[in-house]
Each structure stands twice: as structure tokens, then as C-alpha cells.
Design brief:
By secondary structure, the protein is of the alpha+beta class. Helices cover 15% and strands 39% of the residues. The protein has six helices and 24 strands. The protein has helices at 2-20, 192-199, 253-267, 312-315, 333-340, 367-370, and strands at 36-41, 48-54, 71-76, 81-83, 85-88, 91-94, 104-110, 116-119, 122-123, 130-138, 141-149, 157-169, 176-181, 184-189, 200-206, 211-214, 222-232, 241-250, 284-286, 294-295, 304-311, 326-330, 346-353, 359-366. The strands form six sheets. Strands 3, 4, 7, 8, 9 and 19 form a six-stranded antiparallel beta sheet that branches. Strand 13 and strand 14 form a beta hairpin. Helix 1 (2-20) packs across helix 3 (253-267). The protein is elongated, with a radius of gyration of 27 Å. The chain starts with a helix and ends in a 15-residue tail after the last helix.
């Protein structure tokens, strides 16, 4: 998420610079070339995941530049050290970390080329439990909301993110396929195992927006009906079975201010009348070189999770319908290969016979309607399904 927002910031800054001053030169944006991006939360009650990557240049061909072979540690005031495991691809994690609430801790990162980054010293902050995670049917779709509170009035600053999973299905079994032969194509029966893989799929999606809320101006530390996500009417997500896992984090005031500025920068770019992008100052820095910028704000707080499911039976007539096109294809090798060949927009669905029982044509429909994998699905059924 931080990576995407930073790229948006740099591109917008370049566009504004080009429009107002002179031709844009990426080198004029100082300090952000190959800056270290640190993402994650130190979780004292469960799995801690820290992701390290580098900012991208405008001409980079990759979407992610992970920081590999770093040494990532959580260091206490009393010099107790816990080292996270290198999981590869820039992910560093540990299944469980026991922290003393009376101590403060720093995140220390030593890169493979010897650069050392440290966060500010941080106290362990408590995250209250979610009172409820629930959905409501509304005129334009389904809203998913969370309620929470802190009876001690100490949290005040909250953040949420989520993961969605849903089931995709094809309108019918894909019993036939087209094999290319000399002179065109031939319709053949499909292996039932492959047919099954095309019938039911699963898809997932992570949240990308910054979702934060403060109760500091309220008389009590209560969050009521906070919107997590809204799913519009007839969306495929709710056609069969859907699940959402919501994570809740407690933030410090400083972390909340950091995320607020990042959210503002990402949402208000593009107009001369908007507030212009401001520098994001996190709590991680190179200990010996202040010009070597690190981006991110690490906090220490339990990660509270809650999951709910929504099924088509609960929604009743949801209304989703795949847009499928049906065509008739002459049972001729050239027509079969041209209209229904491998990679085409149509697949054979059923034979059309004449009075004598000979196949004279094939009823074909959109490939996306007979193979759920073509709609972004896969056959990895979630373990919690």
C-alpha cells in the first residue's frame, strides 16, 4: 500500500513540476531514489510480519523491488534481541514474540550492504477487541461495518485493513474442448478432472486504501458502524459464498498523523486547488546517514482479527448474472478452429444435431462463462472455506 501511494506521489509531483517549471527530470526528486520502504506491525500476541522493499524509479519494469537478505530484529531497552526469520521476497516474520509492557522496543534493520536503520523507541500499545463485525443489506448493495470501543478511553486512534475471499462458478460444465488438427479444429470430450477445475474457483483481494478513525474528539472511546467495505448490487463477490477477514490495530497519535497525511496526499493529488503533497516523516531512519531516507511508521500493538461469511441463501435474490454470448458454429474444421480454437472468446457447449442424429453445428458460449479461471479465479480452496 505504501509503495503504491508513494509512486502516485512521485508521478503527480513530476506532472506538476513539468507543467509549472521546466521539463521533468526524475533526478530532481531528491532522497526518494531507492528509499527503503518498511511495512508491518510488531504484534506481541501473534504473528509479526515486516515487509521490506525499495522505491521504484519511473522507468523500472518491475512492480515490486524487495529488500533481500536483510537482518531484521526487535531490540528492547535492556538489549534483549529477537531476530525475525527471512521468508524470502522481502518478508521477515516470527510466529510469536513475547514483549514486556514495561519496556520500549526498536525495530532494527541491517541490509545486506551494511546499512543500518532503526525506528524510534516504542511502547507496547493495547488494541481493544472488536465488539462486532457485521453486514447490512442496503438499497444499493451490502455494507460491512465494525463496532469497537475502549472502556478505559486510552486507544482513541484506530486502523483497519481486510482480506476478501469469494467463490466463482461457471454457468455449466465445460464438457468439450477444441483440438487443432490439420485443416482446422475438432471438438473432443474434455477430461472430467479438467472440467471440474473450470467449474468452481476462488478469488481473493486485499484492501489498498488507508482506513483510519479517531475518537479523540468524542466524549467516549467508541467506534460505531464504521464502514469497512461496500459491495454494490449484483457484484459477483456475493453471488455464491463470500468471506472477509478484518484486522484492527491501535495506533499512537504520531502513527495516526503519519497515516492521515499519507491518506491526504493520495486522495487530493491532481488539482492546483488541492493541498499539495507534503513530505512524509516516519519513525524509521538510517542511523548514520540522514540523507538515506526510509519510509514507514512501525507500531507495536496486538492485531485483532475477526471473520464473517455471507452466502447467497442469506441474501436471497442478489441478482448477479454472467454476461454470456451464445453463438452457433458450423461443424466444420475451419469454423471450429476460427471461432472456438484454444484461446478464443468462445467454447463449445453442446452439439446441434439434424433429424438423422448427425452433428451439424455446435452451440458455443463465452469462454469466461464456462471457465471460472478466465475471470481471475484459481483452484486453491481457502483452508477456512
Amino acid at each position: 500500500m505504501i509503495r503504491k501511494l508513494l509512486i502516485l506521489f512521485l508521478l503527480s509531483a513530476g506532472i506538476l513540476y513539468q507543467a509549472c517549471k521546466k521539463p521533468f527530470d526524475p533526478e530532481t526528486i531528491q532522497g526518494f531514489s531507492s528509499a527503503l520502504i518498511v511495512e508491518g506491525v510488531i504484534n506481541p500476541t501473534g504473528v509479526t510480519n515486516i515487509t521490506l522493499s525499495r522505491t521504484l524509479d519511473l522507468d523500472d519494469k518491475v512492480s515490486v523491488k524487495p529488500e533481500l537478505k536483510a537482518n531484521v530484529q526487535v531490540v528492547a531497552d535492556n538489549n534483549t534481541v529477537v531476530t525475525l526469520l527471512d521468508r524470502g521476497a522481502g518478508l521477515y516474520s516470527i510466529p510469536q514474540i513475547n514483549l514486556n509492557s514495561n519496556l520500549k522496543y526498536r525495530l532494527k534493520i541491517t541490509t545486506s550492504n551494511g546499512r543500518i536503520y532503526e525506528s524510534d523507541a516504542m511502547a507496547v500499545k493495547n488494541t481493544p477487541a472488536m465488539d462486532s463485525l457485521y453486514w447490512r443489506r442496503e438499497p444499493n448493495g451490502v455494507g460491512i461495518y465494525v463496532d469497537t470501543h475502549d472502556s478505559q478511553n486510552k486507544t482513541k486512534y484506530y486502523q483497519w485493513d481486510f482480506e476478501e475471499n469469494w467463490e466463482l462458478r461457471s454457468i455449466d460444465e465445460a464438457r468439450y474442448k477444441v483440438a487443432l488438427v490439420t485443416g482446422g479444429g475438432r471438438v473432443e470430450s474434455r477430461d472430467p478432472k479438467e472440467t471440474a477445475l473450470m467449474q468452481i474457483c476462488y478469488k481473493s483481494q486485499r484492501s489498498t486504501a488507508i482506513d483510519i478513525f479517531s475518537t479523540a474528539s468524542l466524549t467516549s472511546d467508541v467506534v460505531s458502524k464504521h464502514p469497512i467495505v461496500f459491495i454494490k448490487n449484483d457484484a459477483e463477490k456475493l453471488a455464491f459464498k463470500y468471506s472477509i477477514l478484518v484486522r484492527q490495530y491501535a495506533l499512537t497519535f504520531e502513527a495516526f498523523e503519519y497515516l492521515s497525511q499519507m491518506k491526504k496526499n493520495s486522495e487530493q493529488l491532481g488539482s492546483f486547488f488541492d493541498s499539495q503533497p507534503t513530505e512524509l516523516v516516519g519513525n524509521i531512519r538510517n542511523v548514520s546517514d540522514r540523507s538515506d531516507i526510509a519510509i514507514g511508521f512501525i507500531t507495536i500493538a496486538p492485531v485483532i482479527e475477526k471473520r464473517i461469511f455471507i452466502t447467497k441463501e442469506q441474501l436471497g435474490n442478489w441478482g448477479f448474472k454472467l454476461e454470456c454470448q451464445d453463438v452457433s458454429v458450423k461443424n466444420h474444421p475451419d469454423s471450429i478452429a476460427r471461432v472456438m480454437g484454444p484461446g478464443s472468446a468462445y467454447m463449445p457447449q453442446y452439439p446441434i444435431e439434424n433429424m438423422s442424429g448427425s452433428i451439424v453445428a455446435w452451440g458455443a458460449t463465452s469462454t469466461t462463462c464456462l471457465d471460472c479461471r478466465t475471470r481471475g479465479g484459481n483452484n486453491d480452496k481457502p483452508t477456512f472455506w
